[in-house]
Design the sequence.
């Protein structure tokens, strides 16, 4: 078994184009003494964070558990892809805003292919068939690319971690939703509530142990969650 | 789909289980060191004689023994305390390294049992600059068709390469712990932080171990 494993790993290492090089890039050797994350809105964020945890514990998690029990894994992934497919305008526009013209074009191509051949987006056929991967960009990232600072960390009720900049970006992305052009405000709110609820429950059902794992690992859950969000956002914008 | 999360956490566990114990001297490159230790840890986890709940402690102990030489526990603990490290006495530093190491071990030991033998471990690139190195790797879950990035940060200490941080899916574990600890130290005393860590360790000690092996 060990020989087989080594053999398999050897092959995968070769096929992955494994290289060893001495780099000129600055290695992050001294970042460890950085100052703590600034959180001027913590007085508001903490209660909202606790509220969100309770909403999750008493509402979202039980519903998602039931949903998970009746919904096959493949169907959950399909529903997730369906909602991601619908967010094409947001990704297309933000790729364009950031000068990623090829990626923007691929987003349109992905939408057309997945909506037609992929059963209105439940199946991602564009990636395996054409190599067109989803290029997630949102308006918060676009603002970041143009040098707009993150602003303070912000926890949004029912939503979770964000920053002031990303919250502004989220509103802008919402305005790009095609529904905005065809429906009245009341209709939009009703439709959004329905789709958001379904999307969130589906996502939560795919990550049932999310908070349990985080809570297991964290000495300070608020600080751990905040840092995961900020580190990942910083990397997304950098890329 | 809970298996996706399970896969992630098992990879986390695999990567950072042991931040303890001294290192061996070697002329191997950082990648060679990591690859060798990870392969040995995988072999332990896949060994039929280590399967089942009844062999949990034995399995975890064996993996620890395999990975122990990779990590610089003092450096990791020091970096999680950051600016607060210099204010600590020698005795406090020693105690902190010991309890932080215990915290990490207990946090991730159970996660190890979510490991699956069909995970692929790929090493992509190694960068060396003076006494610092970074090794980029990926874990591929062929069932979920998901790839997790896993980057190791190492430094050379007396001709030994030792890991001082692990960055999983763009999240540095050292930075994450540091943010938690700094938040606590910003409002409370160092003794309170130690108490919080000890409480967490106790909670983990009493938490049920769910893993049964492969």
Sequence:
């Amino acid at each position: 078994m060990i020989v087989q494993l080594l053999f398999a790993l050897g092959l995968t290492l070769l096929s992955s184009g494994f290289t060893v090089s001495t780099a000129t890039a600055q290695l992050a050797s001294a970042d460890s003494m950085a100052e703590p994350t600034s959180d001027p809105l913590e007085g508001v964020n903490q209660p909202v964070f606790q509220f969100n945890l309770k909403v999750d514990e008493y509402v979202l998690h039980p519903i998602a558990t039931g949903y998970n029990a009746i919904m096959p894994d493949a169907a959950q992934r399909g529903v997730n892809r369906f909602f991601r497919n619908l967010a094409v305008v947001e990704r297309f526009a933000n790729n364009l805003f950031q000068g990623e013209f090829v990626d923007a074009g691929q987003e349109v191509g992905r939408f057309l292919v997945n909506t037609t051949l992929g059963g209105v987006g439940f199946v991602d056929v564009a990636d395996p068939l054409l190599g067109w991967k989803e290029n997630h960009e949102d308006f918060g990232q676009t603002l970041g690319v143009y040098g707009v600072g993150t602003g303070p960390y912000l926890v949004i009720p029912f939503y979770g971690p964000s920053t002031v900049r990303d919250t502004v970006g989220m509103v802008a992305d919402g305005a790009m939703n095609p529904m905005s052009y065809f429906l009245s405000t009341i209709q939009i709110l009703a439709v959004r509530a329905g789709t958001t609820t379904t999307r969130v429950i589906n996502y939560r059902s795919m990550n049932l142990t999310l908070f349990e794992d985080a809570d297991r690992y964290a000495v300070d859950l608020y600080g751990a969650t905040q840092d995961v969000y900020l580190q990942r956002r910083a990397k997304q914008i950098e890329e | 789909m809970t298996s996706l999360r399970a896969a992630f956490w098992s990879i986390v566990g695999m990567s950072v289980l042991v931040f303890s114990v001294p290192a061996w001297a070697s002329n191997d490159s950082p990648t060679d060191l990591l690859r060798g230790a990870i392969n040995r840890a995988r072999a332990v986890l896949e060994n039929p004689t280590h399967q089942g709940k009844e062999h949990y402690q034995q399995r975890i102990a064996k993996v620890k023994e395999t990975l122990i030489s990779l990590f610089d526990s003092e450096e990791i603990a020091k970096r999680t305390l950051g600016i607060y490290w210099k204010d600590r006495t020698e005795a406090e530093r020693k105690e902190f390294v010991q309890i932080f190491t215990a915290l990490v071990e207990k946090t991730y030991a159970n996660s190890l049992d979510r490991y699956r033998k069909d995970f692929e471990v790929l090493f992509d690139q190694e960068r060396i600059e003076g006494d610092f190195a970074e090794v980029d790797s990926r874990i591929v879950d062929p069932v979920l068709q998901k790839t997790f990035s896993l980057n190791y940060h190492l430094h050379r200490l007396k001709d030994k390469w030792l890991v001082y941080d692990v960055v999983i899916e763009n999240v540095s574990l050292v930075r994450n712990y540091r943010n938690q600890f700094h938040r606590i130290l910003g409002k409370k005393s160092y003794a309170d932080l130690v108490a919080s860590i000890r409480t967490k360790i106790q909670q983990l000690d009493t938490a049920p171990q769910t893993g049964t092996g492969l």
User: Anything to note?
Assistant: Confidence is low (pLDDT under 50) at residues 17-25 of chain B.
